[in-house]
Amino acid sequence: MKLKYYPKPNQPVDFIEERDIFGQIKPKGVSIIKKAWHKIKNAPDLKVKYAQLGVRIIATFFDLIVVLTVLLIIETFLFKFNYNDKYIMLYRFVIGAFIWIFYNAFFESSGYKATVGKILFHIQVIDMYGKRLSVLRALFRCVSKVISILPLGLGIWYISTNPRKQGWHDLLAGSYVIKP
Predict the structure, then answer these.
(1) How far apart are CA 40 and CA 36, in angstroms?
(2) Is residue 28 part of a domain?
(3) Helix (H, G, I), strand (E, B) or coil at 176
(4) What is the enclosing helix (H) or strand (E) of 81?
Protein backbone atom coordinates (compact mmCIF):
# COMPACT_ATOMS: atom_id res chain seq x y z
CA MET A 1 0.00 0.00 0.00
CA LYS A 2 1.40 3.37 -1.06
CA LEU A 3 1.14 6.36 1.24
CA LYS A 4 0.34 9.70 -0.28
CA TYR A 5 2.02 12.85 0.98
CA TYR A 6 -0.29 15.71 1.82
CA PRO A 7 1.27 18.97 3.05
CA LYS A 8 0.08 20.34 6.35
CA PRO A 9 -2.35 23.23 5.84
CA ASN A 10 -0.66 25.60 8.34
CA GLN A 11 2.85 25.28 6.91
CA PRO A 12 4.31 28.43 5.33
CA VAL A 13 4.96 28.31 1.63
CA ASP A 14 8.61 27.52 0.78
CA PHE A 15 9.08 30.15 -1.89
CA ILE A 16 8.35 33.12 0.42
CA GLU A 17 11.60 34.52 1.80
CA GLU A 18 11.87 36.92 4.69
CA ARG A 19 14.41 39.70 4.25
CA ASP A 20 16.23 41.82 6.80
CA ILE A 21 16.66 45.61 6.71
CA PHE A 22 19.69 45.31 4.40
CA GLY A 23 17.71 43.26 1.86
CA GLN A 24 19.49 40.00 2.68
CA ILE A 25 17.49 36.76 2.99
CA LYS A 26 16.93 35.74 6.61
CA PRO A 27 17.88 32.12 7.23
CA LYS A 28 15.39 30.33 9.43
CA GLY A 29 16.54 29.43 12.94
CA VAL A 30 19.96 31.09 12.70
CA SER A 31 21.13 33.89 14.96
CA ILE A 32 22.31 37.23 13.60
CA ILE A 33 25.90 36.54 14.67
CA LYS A 34 26.01 33.16 12.90
CA LYS A 35 24.44 34.72 9.81
CA ALA A 36 27.01 37.53 9.72
CA TRP A 37 29.90 35.10 10.23
CA HIS A 38 28.51 32.85 7.49
CA LYS A 39 28.31 35.80 5.08
CA ILE A 40 31.88 36.89 5.89
CA LYS A 41 33.23 33.34 5.47
CA ASN A 42 31.36 32.73 2.22
CA ALA A 43 31.83 36.14 0.60
CA PRO A 44 33.49 35.91 -2.80
CA ASP A 45 37.19 36.66 -2.89
CA LEU A 46 37.41 40.04 -4.61
CA LYS A 47 40.49 40.63 -6.71
CA VAL A 48 41.03 44.22 -5.52
CA LYS A 49 43.70 46.24 -3.80
CA TYR A 50 42.63 47.24 -0.30
CA ALA A 51 43.31 50.78 0.96
CA GLN A 52 45.95 51.14 3.68
CA LEU A 53 45.35 52.80 7.05
CA GLY A 54 47.44 55.91 6.30
CA VAL A 55 45.55 56.84 3.14
CA ARG A 56 42.24 56.30 4.91
CA ILE A 57 43.25 58.58 7.79
CA ILE A 58 44.39 61.36 5.45
CA ALA A 59 41.15 61.09 3.45
CA THR A 60 39.20 61.36 6.71
CA PHE A 61 41.05 64.58 7.57
CA PHE A 62 40.02 66.05 4.21
CA ASP A 63 36.42 65.02 4.92
CA LEU A 64 36.71 66.69 8.31
CA ILE A 65 37.76 69.94 6.62
CA VAL A 66 34.70 69.77 4.33
CA VAL A 67 32.32 69.15 7.24
CA LEU A 68 33.92 71.84 9.40
CA THR A 69 33.50 74.33 6.55
CA VAL A 70 29.79 73.51 6.40
CA LEU A 71 29.57 73.84 10.18
CA LEU A 72 31.30 77.23 10.04
CA ILE A 73 28.69 78.45 7.56
CA ILE A 74 25.90 77.18 9.82
CA GLU A 75 27.63 78.81 12.80
CA THR A 76 27.57 82.22 11.16
CA PHE A 77 23.85 82.13 10.53
CA LEU A 78 22.48 80.26 13.55
CA PHE A 79 24.68 80.83 16.58
CA LYS A 80 26.55 84.10 15.82
CA PHE A 81 29.74 82.72 17.45
CA ASN A 82 28.26 82.64 20.97
CA TYR A 83 30.63 80.48 23.04
CA ASN A 84 29.24 81.31 26.49
CA ASP A 85 26.02 79.29 26.50
CA LYS A 86 26.48 75.59 27.32
CA TYR A 87 23.29 74.59 25.49
CA ILE A 88 24.48 76.18 22.28
CA MET A 89 27.68 74.13 22.58
CA LEU A 90 25.53 71.00 22.88
CA TYR A 91 23.57 72.02 19.78
CA ARG A 92 26.84 72.52 17.91
CA PHE A 93 27.97 69.04 18.82
CA VAL A 94 24.65 67.39 17.86
CA ILE A 95 24.42 69.28 14.56
CA GLY A 96 28.06 68.44 13.79
CA ALA A 97 27.51 64.74 14.52
CA PHE A 98 24.41 64.59 12.30
CA ILE A 99 26.14 66.38 9.45
CA TRP A 100 29.16 64.04 9.72
CA ILE A 101 26.98 60.90 9.73
CA PHE A 102 24.76 61.95 6.83
CA TYR A 103 27.69 63.31 4.83
CA ASN A 104 29.44 59.94 5.03
CA ALA A 105 26.27 57.92 4.43
CA PHE A 106 25.17 60.01 1.45
CA PHE A 107 28.51 60.02 -0.38
CA GLU A 108 29.49 56.40 0.38
CA SER A 109 26.16 55.13 -0.93
CA SER A 110 26.27 57.36 -4.02
CA GLY A 111 27.56 56.36 -7.43
CA TYR A 112 31.03 57.61 -6.48
CA LYS A 113 31.15 55.10 -3.57
CA ALA A 114 33.32 57.62 -1.71
CA THR A 115 33.34 60.87 0.21
CA VAL A 116 35.19 63.93 -1.08
CA GLY A 117 38.39 62.96 0.76
CA LYS A 118 38.22 59.41 -0.56
CA ILE A 119 37.65 60.71 -4.10
CA LEU A 120 40.79 62.86 -3.80
CA PHE A 121 42.86 59.81 -2.85
CA HIS A 122 41.12 57.42 -5.28
CA ILE A 123 39.63 55.03 -2.73
CA GLN A 124 36.09 53.64 -2.61
CA VAL A 125 33.81 51.86 -0.15
CA ILE A 126 32.12 48.70 -1.45
CA ASP A 127 30.14 45.84 0.04
CA MET A 128 31.20 42.17 0.17
CA TYR A 129 30.17 41.59 -3.43
CA GLY A 130 31.90 44.61 -4.97
CA LYS A 131 28.76 46.73 -5.29
CA ARG A 132 28.05 50.12 -3.76
CA LEU A 133 26.65 50.28 -0.24
CA SER A 134 22.97 50.88 0.37
CA VAL A 135 22.09 54.05 2.27
CA LEU A 136 21.11 52.04 5.34
CA ARG A 137 24.35 50.03 5.32
CA ALA A 138 26.41 53.21 4.85
CA LEU A 139 24.55 54.83 7.77
CA PHE A 140 25.20 51.76 9.92
CA ARG A 141 28.88 51.77 8.91
CA CYS A 142 29.30 55.41 9.92
CA VAL A 143 27.49 55.02 13.25
CA SER A 144 29.44 51.86 14.07
CA LYS A 145 32.71 53.78 13.74
CA VAL A 146 32.05 54.77 17.36
CA ILE A 147 32.60 51.11 18.30
CA SER A 148 35.95 51.19 16.51
CA ILE A 149 37.07 54.45 18.10
CA LEU A 150 35.90 54.15 21.73
CA PRO A 151 38.20 51.37 22.99
CA LEU A 152 41.36 53.48 22.50
CA GLY A 153 41.00 53.31 18.71
CA LEU A 154 41.71 49.57 18.62
CA GLY A 155 39.06 49.03 15.93
CA ILE A 156 40.82 51.54 13.71
CA TRP A 157 44.28 50.06 14.35
CA TYR A 158 42.85 46.67 13.43
CA ILE A 159 42.94 47.90 9.81
CA SER A 160 46.72 47.59 9.78
CA THR A 161 46.67 43.91 10.86
CA ASN A 162 43.65 42.64 8.92
CA PRO A 163 44.55 41.06 5.55
CA ARG A 164 41.53 42.74 3.90
CA LYS A 165 42.27 46.06 5.68
CA GLN A 166 38.91 46.15 7.46
CA GLY A 167 38.27 48.00 10.70
CA TRP A 168 35.71 46.79 13.20
CA HIS A 169 33.10 49.09 11.63
CA ASP A 170 33.83 47.54 8.21
CA LEU A 171 33.45 44.04 9.64
CA LEU A 172 30.13 44.97 11.24
CA ALA A 173 28.78 46.61 8.09
CA GLY A 174 30.24 44.06 5.66
CA SER A 175 32.21 46.62 3.68
CA TYR A 176 35.67 47.06 2.21
CA VAL A 177 37.69 50.17 1.37
CA ILE A 178 39.55 49.62 -1.89
CA LYS A 179 41.81 51.38 -4.37
CA PRO A 180 40.16 50.84 -7.79
Answers:
(1) 6
(2) no
(3) strand
(4) none
- Note whether residue 53 is domain-resident: yes
Task: Find out whether 123 and 56 touch, Cβ atoms under 8 Å.
Answer: yes
What is the distance of C-alpha 69 from the center of its chain? Answer: 23
- Which residue, 107, 100, 35, is CA-closest to 74? 100
Whether residue 130 lies inside any domain: the answer is yes
Burial profile 82-118: b = 16 or more Cβ within 10 angstroms, e = fewer: eeeeeebeeebeebbeebbeebbbebbbeeebbbebb
170 in helix, strand or coil?
helix
Tens-place pLDDT, residues 103-155: 999 999 999 999 999 999 999 999 988 889 999 999 999 999 999 999 898 98
Q: Does 128 map to a domain?
A: yes
pTM of the full predicted structure? Answer: 0.72
Structural domain harbouring 57: 49-179
49 by DSSP, 3-state: which? strand
